[in-house]
Design brief:
This protein is mainly beta. It has a domain of 36 residues. The longest helix is centred in the N-terminal third of the chain and has 4 residues.
């Protein structure tokens, strides 16, 4: 039998980028264990357009 996969790919999008008015988006792809972390994740990642570390939230 095939093993059920617990890890899923999620997309993280910058929260400050849209408010800055600059074109483009800052997105990262990562994986998470859906059994251990059922809620949406937030990580600080580097935004190259803004040139600083910002909070990136999981999107659907």
């Amino acid at each position: 039998m095939a093993k059920k996969q617990n890890r899923i790919q999620v997309i993280l999008e910058c929260t400050e980028h849209a408010a800055s008015g600059k074109p483009g988006t800052s997105r990262y792809i990562t994986t998470k264990n859906k059994k251990n972390t059922s809620e949406r994740i937030e990580l600080k990642k580097y935004n190259s357009v803004l040139g600083k570390y910002t909070v990136h939230k999981e999107i659907k």
